[in-house]
Specification:
Order of helices and strands: EHEHEEEHEEHEEHEEHEHEHEH
Shape: globular
Number of strands: 14
Number of helices: 9
Helix content: 25-40%
Strand order of the largest sheet: 5-4-3-2-1-12-13-14
Structural class: alpha/beta
Strand content: 15-25%
Largest sheet: 8 strands, mixed
Length: 273
């Protein structure tokens, strides 16, 4: 039997169209929990915006972990403790902020309960209305940096799709030697420290737990899941996933809306019979 089950959230576990976790997925997770499998959420979401998922899966009462901010931090969901962190230094924030101002990109910095931003765009709307992220929109007349109280685990640029497409490779060329730059969607460029991603965070967690990647089943839909899907002993990509996610996974399952995660769990349990 697998020891650890790792799932991405948006587009994998959580269906954006219905704004909920399909019941089949919840039932599948609870079945794994009953069998003693450790559940790990691995997401680009912040810690705060992941709490609704943690509660719905009853991970406050059962052994489990949250890998937030694309691998920038790890939390024990049962005792709510931070067990791993890789914050981005302030010196790099200043450089990124300047690039954003010069190129009409909005710069977003995670804090504990909200994300500080200097503009409103389709990416901000998605994170606010669908993902449930709280934002603090700063005025050009006020001090943006006065709202940043500590170094974040993840930052991002958001804007219209055409601007994100135009600047993704430019940002990677300028900062890719120090930061991991991810084209996280039509309106997003997600940024964490170099060598920080879901896979490296999982590696740290597995070392702590005394398990190996062969003991892991993982499922996801995005490019930021691909490294983990390639390394896991068992892995699946969603029908709604990216080409890279699909090519990295061992199997393909149905879409998020159709409860593809529950299909993967069923395949796992059958393979153990």
């Amino acid at each position: 039997m697998i020891k650890v089950f790792i799932t991405d959230v948006d587009g994998t576990l959580y269906d954006h169209k219905r704004m909920e976790i399909p019941k089949a997925n919840i039932d599948a997770i609870k079945l794994l929990q009953k069998k003693g499998v450790i559940i790990v959420i691995a997401t680009a979401r912040t810690y705060a915006s992941s709490q609704i998922i943690v509660k719905e899966l009853d991970m406050e009462n059962k052994p489990g972990y949250l890998i937030a901010s694309n691998g920038g931090s790890i939390y024990d969901t049962k005792d709510k403790s931070l067990i791993y962190e890789k914050p981005i230094p302030m010196s790099l924030l200043y450089e990124l902020h300047k690039y954003g101002l010069n190129n009409d990109l909005h710069f977003n910095v995670e804090q504990d309960e909200y994300v500080v931003t200097n503009g409103y765009d389709p990416g901000i709307a998605i994170d606010n209305q669908i993902v449930g992220v709280n934002f603090m929109l700063t005025s050009p007349l006020n001090d943006y940096w006065a709202k940043i109280t500590h170094e974040p685990y993840k930052v991002s640029f958001t804007q219209r799709k055409e601007l994100i497409d135009e600047h993704y490779l430019k940002v990677d060329k300028l900062f890719g030697d120090r930061l991991y730059i991810c084209h996280a969607g039509d309106n997003f460029i997600d940024i964490v420290l170099k060598d920080v991603n879901k896979s490296t965070a999982v590696a740290h967690l597995l070392d702590k737990l005394g398990y190996d990647f062969k003991d892991v089943a993982a499922i996801g839909d995005g490019d930021n899941d691909s490294w983990l899907l390639a390394k896991a002993g068992f892995s699946a990509a969603m029908a709604n996933g990216t080409a890279l996610a699909k090519s990295s996974a061992k199997v393909l399952v149905g879409s998020c809306a159709d409860g593809g995660l529950s299909e993967f769990v069923e395949l796992l349990l059958k393979s153990e019979e």
